[in-house]
Structures are given as structure tokens and as C-alpha cells.
Amino acid sequence: MYQVSENIYFDESLSFNEQSEEFINYAQSVFSTIDFTDMSNMQSDNTCTWTVKKDGLRFIAKRKFINSKMYTVKEHLFNVEIIE
Amino acid sequence: MAGIYVANYGNVENDGLSWETPKRSIQSAFDTSFNPVYAKGFYREALNGYRSLIAVGKLVIDGTLLNNGFINSSNGNLISGVTIQNFIAIQVAGSVRIKLDNCIIRNFVDFNFVENSTTRGIFNCLIVNCNKVTLPYGSIFHNNNVIYNTDLSLFLSSSIPESLDTIYNIISECNVAIGKNPVQIKYSLFHNCTFKFTGGGIGSDETEYSIPNGANDAEKLANLRSRLAAVYGGSASQYLIGCKYQTDGDLFINPDKENFYLVPGCTASRMSYEGGCIGKYPEGSLADFATDFASYSNIDANGDIIDQTVNATAETNISDLGKLRHISSLKALGERAIRNGNEININANLGAEVDPGTLLIDGATYIVRTEAISLTASGKSRDVGETFIASATDGLEFTSDTGYVQQYIFDLDRTIEMKVSKTDSVLSTAVWIKLKLDEMPMVNYDANGVVQYGNADDNYDEASAERMYIRYWKAKITVQAKNLPA
């Protein structure tokens, strides 16, 4: 269990969606700082990944696009890792 | 902050600041700093972000083949006027912090609106054809919605201490599961729904009926109240039309609230412990004979007994809960009759004809039939229909040329008559049986699955009895009248 602040904990044994309500709220606020319009990291499989480091954690947002040229997203994926 | 525009004729390069230069996808607008997002057209995409989305004209967001939730992260989003369809869920994780207004929600696999804010909820929406819809209520409002053809779960969120109202909804053709009280679903129309009331908290379910505990009726009722769901329907729940109430435990509706009404056509799958507490009329109120009973004899349209010397009968085609309702009505009938100088004892039974020459039982109550009689000792004459208590002082022999008396048998079990069958759906071979109202319905079946005797019938055999699961029944009520002693 990784403590971010007084009431916010990250449980590395759980997936992102299984984290506490408090942590998800905190994480989403971090993800909201990402400029998703920067798709310079677009891969051939129509996925693009963005990474933010904060509070000792690595926040990874990944999108699977239906059509990147039309900016239509099939799936939004989020993950958080502890920076070793 | 200025809004941003999205249309099917837009493209990614557009700035989105006008309908002339709209963005192509809603997500591309969500990823800008502009809010709200105005959009029109048809889109297939999953969303993420904190933006309000307002339809301008027709706006459809379709989740077909995405295998995903509609929105992944939300906080204060207003979704207005949008048709949202074919998604797995409304949101993948966390609370759904959006306000849906004037939206059409359809073909969701699991629409679980987990929400914890008083300012959000679902308003003025049409929710149709979803496999499962879960709407916690409490501090959340879900108002003025139409919910059709879905499995709908309504329960009080345990994480929400406040309790406000979910009102003015129309719920039609749904399988509705209502969780533990306090349920506050008010002013809503339930039409042709199947109900399942659960007690003991979310997810728990009374699957086995058990006799209520308690030394007396009051304690038993309190026991039922403690373990069953109570429904406070709101004054407009008188519009419950054609509903089916399915409960593995007893269905209990508190008439003290005077806000839950059932109308003809409503059915329930189980009998209640205390029929007087279920039904359109709170206990003691008046029945409407002209509309409540399909046929009745010796009772006028006001519910008054016409001929005091013969039994009065009333029969209704209303099934299940209507039956219980009319037990309540029967009590009302009795009260009305008392006010008119008569007395009705729904538990009384008349004994066999007792002819002159047969000794009466000392202390027993009798009613005079067909002709005035006199007792030998006192020589007192009594009129037809008059009741009296036989005593040795008056003499236990009586005289009459052609008349006879019948004994009143009081303190019978409170019973109900019904026709039921395991196998005969139209009950063509079924016979009327008597069941005790406040006990588990145990009956004797014959080899063909036709019920022969109920636990209040004389020929009932307890050793071979089986439990009967009641789904539909037809009421048939017999009441007896007598003149009050002078």
C-alpha cells in the first residue's frame, strides 16, 4: 500500500479500476493534466500512450483508437505504477 | 468559457469554435479546454473527461462493438438531449458524476448509476430495453424518467446517509427489485411490472417464508415489519395498474402511511400475514361494493345486509392481492353494518339446523330461523333473525311449529377460501378449499395435483399435507348477519 496523502492510498495489488474512490478521483485529476491532443506517440496498432510522473507514481493513459484520423476512441485505459 | 462544436461533417484540424468549423469527434472536443460541447449527428466512441455535452438536434452516441462504458471519467458533466445506446455500462470505474437530462438510454448491458452527489442523477430521461438498470436512491434524484422493459433495481445506497426522494417516474413493463426500506419512490407510475421486494439489505432476499414471530398479532406484525420491505408509494401510486408483486416473503404495505394503493388488476404471488393491512383501503375504511365485487348477494350497493336471516356473499374476480384487499373491505362491511344496527362476524359459522325437541347447549349463541319460537321455561318469544344465548334458566328446550335455530360458532380461525391447482391452469376441476390466513398454506393434493383440502377444512390431513405456493387466486367471501339483541 503506497500512501499518496493523508486519505489517498494506492494498492499496487489491485487494478486501476479496483482502487479506492479517493485514489481514482486523485488519479483522474492527474490524468486530466495530460494533453491528449499530442499524439506523437501513436503506434501502428492505433494505440497511443501518455505518461505523467507525480508523487512517486507513474500515471499511464492509453487510448485505443477506432480511427485516429477521426479522433474516435474505442477504449480509454488507465494504469498507475509505483516508480522504483 | 466558450463552447466547442462537434458535427459529422467536421474534422480534427478544425478549431471547433463554430458550426462552420466543428470538430469531428466528441472526444476531440473533450480534450480541448472548451466547455460545454455542443454536438449533433451519430458517433461511435467512448468518452473520457470532465465536460458537459449538449445535443443540438439529434445526437446519438453508440457503443456497438466498443465493448466499453459510455464515459470513463466524469465530474460534474451535464449530458443533455443525447441518445446513448449499446454500451456495456455507463462508466467503467468510480462514481458516475454526471447529470443526465432529457436523454434516451437504451440497450445497456448494465446501467449502474453509482452516484454520491445530490446535484447529479437522471432527469427527464427515457431508459429502455436494458438488461439491467441499477438506480441507487438516497441523496440522489432520479426524477421524471420513463423506464421501460428492463430489469430495474432500486435500492438505498448504504454509503449515502441522507435520504431524498426519487419521484415522478414512470416504470413500465419492468422487473423491479426494491431493496430494504426506507424506500422513497414517490409519485411514480408502475405499470405492468413484476416486483420483487427484498428485505434485510441490498442483495439479501427472504427466500423462505416463515411464520412471523410474536406472542400476539401486534408482535407478529412488528416482526414482519422488521424483516420485510415496506413500500411507501406516494399518493400517486394509486396509479399502480396491472402490477404484479412477487415476493418470496410476505408483501407488506403499511396502510398507516395512507399512501400506497392497489387497484383492480394488481396481483401478488403470496399471501400476507395480515390481510387487513394490505390493499387499497386502510383497515376500517369503506368498501365500494359496486366496483369491488363482481357479484354479491343479500348485500345492497352500499354494502348493507338486506335480509338478516340468510348469509350474505360477495365474490370478486380480482386475484391475489385483490383478495387480501377485500378482506379489508369485509371488515369495512362489518363496520358499516354495525352502524346500521347490524353485526357481522366474519369468523362466525352457523352450526347445523337444530329442530324443536333437541336440547340447546347452555351458554351457546343461537339465531332463530324461519319462524318465531319460544323457550319452554320463560315462554319468551323471539323473532326470526334474532339471536339469543341459551341458558338453563330459560330452559334448554324450545318450541316452534316449523322453525328451527342454528348455533353461532365463534372464534374460528381466520380463513380464506380459494381454488387452486398444481396442474389445472383454468381450475376447472378445482374445488373451494379453506386456508387459515395466518399460517403457512398447507394443503392436501390429490394424485392429479388438484388441491382437495386446505388446513382449515374438516378433512384436512396434516400428515400428508404439502406447502402450497400461491400465485393467483380468486376471492370468494361469505359473511353472516344477525340482528343485535334488543
Report the β-strand fraction of chain B as a percent range: 25-35%
- How many separate domains make up the residues of chain B? 3
In the residues of chain A, how many domains can be counted? 1
Which strands sit side by side, in order, in the main sheet of chain A?
3-4-5
Protein name (chain B): Right-handed parallel beta-helix repeat-containing protein
InterPro entries (chain B): Pectin_lyase_fold/virulence
Organism (chain B): Plebeiibacterium sediminum
Summarize the structure.
The complex is a heterodimer of chains A (84) and B (486). Chain A is mainly β and 84 residues long.
Describe the structure.
The complex is a heterodimer of chains A (84) and B (486). In chain A, the strands form 2 sheets. Chain A has a 3-stranded antiparallel β-sheet with strand order 3-4-5, covered by helices on one side. Chain A has a two-stranded antiparallel ribbon with strand order 1-2. Helix content of chain A is 13%, strand content 40%. Chain A contains 1 helix and 5 strands; from the N terminus they run E-E-H-E-E-E. Chain A has one domain (2-82). Chain A has one helix spanning 21-31; strands at 2-3, 9-10, 47-54, 57-67, 72-82. Chain B is rod-shaped, with a radius of gyration of 31 Å. Chain B has 4 helices and 41 strands. With 486 residues, chain B is mainly beta. In chain B, strands 1, 2, 3, 5, 6, 8, 9, 11, 12, 14, 15, 18 and 21 form a 13-stranded parallel β-sheet that branches. The chains are: A mainly beta (84), B mainly beta (486). The interface between A and B is medium-sized, with 23 and 26 residues.
